[in-house]
Predict the structure.
Amino acid sequence: MKPRSNQPKKHHYVPCVLLSRFGDGEGRNTLIWVWDKQTGKVRRTSVNDAAHEKHLYRVPREDCALIADLPGMRSLPEEYQGELGWEHMFADIEGIFGTLLDSMSENLRIPERGSDDWRFLLHTFFLLSARTPAKMEEARVVGELTLNMFAQLEVNRSDDPEREAPRYEMPFRENSHILLAHTLLSMEPVVALLAERNWSLRVVNDPANFILTDYPVSYSFARPSRNEFDSAAPATKNTLATLPLSRNMLLVGEFEVPSGMRMGDARWVGYQNNLAFTLAERFLFTREDRFDCLTDFERLPAYASIYGSEERLVTITPELFRSMHEKGALEKPVRMTVNGQLPQDYRLS
């Protein structure tokens, strides 16, 4: 194992060991294309210089003592307890994940259900969602809304009609370690839900180019929703949980279809790419300077879109991407927050 820096500044929220499977080259020098929804620009760079934020997982020194008192922290290795404890822990997890990915790519098989590798895979699936800036921002919005809700409720209980509730803000950068801790609190309950799914690999022969994004884990309906109020989430039946593992291999968790290895085709790639493109917060990562999407004008569930629709494949090029940006078609997705309502729709009074 290569010695790691004691003070890594680039904290990759999408691990290099995964990113490198979507580019050309080896290791951190692998070259990928980066598509920026915010600017409409496309550039080529190494995986080492993509999908990271400076000190994203750093715990302020003054807070390390508070974390050290949490249950189980004292039993962890010393390097997991300092300012960069989370970053070092993630690095070790990524090393094991890389070995598991190599095995899955070689054997085209999911680890045996209930095995240590299978449980590790599910925990890593969760982490790849929970540790992203987008997921941490969701926690920030919920936390800020909750603080202001309680402040408004307190004012509503008072007898002073002129009293105004204070407005609380929770800046991302200063609170990133708290936001990360908040997202990780749900690990075991969510992994227990993921364990109820049947996990498979969808493998597509070359040429195949699944894309990866800064929001790598996706949930979507496999077939029409059984309840109009359902949302695609870990506990919702009749949904797919997906994670691209390489440019030609997709991890799929579902309820109705048994586990196994199944072949996919260009329409599988196009559907998944459309989903990933839509859910991406800002960045997309690809092997080539183009990728295919299955048009989704009808917003059909997965199997209907792939097997039973007139949706067609469209190739996204840098020119088309730039044009979409100029037309305002690359906005950030609006994610659900408190009580399933959107932030701008939530009323505190």
